[in-house]
């Protein structure tokens, strides 16, 4: 991977990482909102091919364990199995589910390593993580191909994410979001960012919510 | 030869260990502390093969402290006990197993007090009371008879004293003093050393 490191007089850039992040901007939108009583992930479902036989709906949202799940955007095969390892290694050692931030850090360490050693290209994946643990309650994290991550109250990745984030910034009510109002907000934001006139179950919008020690996954109702 | 005992109450755990460090028939040291502080509210009591005890206990202790430094919060007693057991189990089938018997006592904010019994074959059991060593054969029956889950701190100490008196009376070896500690939501407290009458 020569040319990964570019030395110039004023700036040092990792183009592969930037390209990966650029490519993610073309993928289906996904947004996450932290509410008082849970976390919500909503995602655009793009593979709407008539002949596609989708028995299991969630191609992008994966449940890691009873209180955590994550979302993958852009090129699923890249990171499908990877989070299970740190998550279950922790469970094997401590007989407790892994705390959210430790999982995020573990994955981001892997992603960062690919930007520094090995000579291979970085993972072209941005992830949203939602979960609950006893230390910090409900949490929402976002990570990108560089291995950088942050905790969020509401965020969006994928197509039109900047517009979505600015909408979320205006409408997110600090401390007053319940899951139902978060759902309403998510639908409103997706309506703007998805280029369809009306959201529906056929267009395929998934919702996953994380409630303490329970997990529910439902199709979006007709709105 | 060495003796460990733990008694769990409603909101505390009382633990005690003898203070003799021996080599064959000689008492080398009479004030050995066999308890290792894993965190503010977790104690590990460790007896067994000389050298293995301190080596293994300190290894666990430093790893628990590393976890706290890395993550900003501590491991719960249950997680610490399982971590210890996993390490012991991994080493068991290696060329260098650790021959140690352990009691792990801790207080968790959500789960309350906990006492975990672990032996050199890496068995782990959460128990209301437990003991290690030859002394266990003499004292478990006393604990069976008089233990209640709602013991107060003083009653638990009295029960402990009963056990130690029994050792003093019937155990062939002279165990003159025992370190005693109590863990509750405030942390680890050192109690008075118990020295059975008649022992030198």
From TrEMBL, chain A:
It comes from the Eukaryota. Transmembrane segments: none annotated. One of its GO terms (cellular component) is proteasome core complex, alpha-subunit complex. Pfam families: Proteasome. Keywords: Proteasome. Signal peptide: none annotated. One of its GO terms (biological process) is proteolysis involved in protein catabolic process. The keyword Acyltransferase does not apply. Belongs to the peptidase T1A family. This is Proteasome 20S subunit alpha 4.
UniProtKB/TrEMBL annotation, chain B:
Pfam families: Proteasome. Coiled coil: none annotated. It comes from the Eukaryota. One of its GO terms (biological process) is proteasomal protein catabolic process. Its main location: cytoplasm. GO terms for cellular component: cytoplasm; nucleus; proteasome core complex. InterPro entries: Ntn_hydrolases_N (IPR029055), Proteasome_beta2 (IPR035206), Proteasome_bsu_CS (IPR016050), Proteasome_sua/b (IPR001353), Proteasome_suB-type (IPR023333). PANTHER family: METALLOPROTEASE TLDD (PTHR32194), PROTEASOME SUBUNIT BETA TYPE-1 (PTHR32194:SF2). This is Proteasome subunit beta. It comes from Hucho hucho.
């Amino acid at each position: 991977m020569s040319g990964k490191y570019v030395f110039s007089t004023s700036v040092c850039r990792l183009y592969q990482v930037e390209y990966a992040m650029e490519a993610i901007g073309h993928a289906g939108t996904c947004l996450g909102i932290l509410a008082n009583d849970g976390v919500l992930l909503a995602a655009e479902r793009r593979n709407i091919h008539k002949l596609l036989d989708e028995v299991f709906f969630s191609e992008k949202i994966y449940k890691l364990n009873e209180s955590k799940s994550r979302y993958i955007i852009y090129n699923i095969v890249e990171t499908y199995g990877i989070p299970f390892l740190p998550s279950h290694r922790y469970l094997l050692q401590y007989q407790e589910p892994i705390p959210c931030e430790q999982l995020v850090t573990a994955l981001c360490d892997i992603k960062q390593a690919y930007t520094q050693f090995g000579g291979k290209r970085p993972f072209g994946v941005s992830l949203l993580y939602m979960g609950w643990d006893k230390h910090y309650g409900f949490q929402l994290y976002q990570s990108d191909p560089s291995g950088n991550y942050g905790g969020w109250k509401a965020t969006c990745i994928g197509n039109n994410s900047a517009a979505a984030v600015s909408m979320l910034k205006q409408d997110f009510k600090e401390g007053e979001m319940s899951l139902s109002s978060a759902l309403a907000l998510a639908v409103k934001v997706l309506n703007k960012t998805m280029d369809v006139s009306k959201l529906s179950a056929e267009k395929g919008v998934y919702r996953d919510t994380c409630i303490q020690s329970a997990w529910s996954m439902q199709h979006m109702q007709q709105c | 030869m060495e003796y460990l005992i733990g008694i769990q109450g409603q909101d505390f755990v009382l633990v005690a260990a003898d203070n003799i460090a021996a080599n064959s028939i000689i008492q080398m040291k009479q004030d050995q502390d066999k308890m290792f502080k894993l965190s503010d509210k977790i104690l590990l009591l460790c007896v067994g093969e000389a050298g293995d005890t301190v080596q293994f206990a300190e290894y666990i202790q430093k790893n628990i402290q590393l976890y706290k430094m890395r993550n900003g919060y501590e491991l719960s007693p249950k997680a610490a006990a399982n971590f210890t057991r996993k390490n012991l189990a991994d080493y068991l089938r290696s060329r260098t197993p650790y021959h140690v018997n352990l009691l792990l006592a801790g207080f968790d904010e959500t789960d309350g007090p906990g006492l975990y019994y672990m032996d050199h074959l890496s068995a782990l059991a959460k128990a209301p009371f437990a003991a290690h060593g030859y002394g266990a054969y003499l004292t478990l029956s006393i604990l069976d008879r008089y233990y209640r889950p709602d013991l107060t701190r003083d009653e638990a100490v009295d029960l402990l004293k009963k056990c130690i008196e029994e050792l003093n009376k019937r155990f062939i070896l002279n165990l003159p003093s025992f370190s005693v500690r109590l863990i509750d939501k405030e942390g680890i407290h050192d109690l008075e050393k118990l020295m059975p009458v008649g022992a030198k």
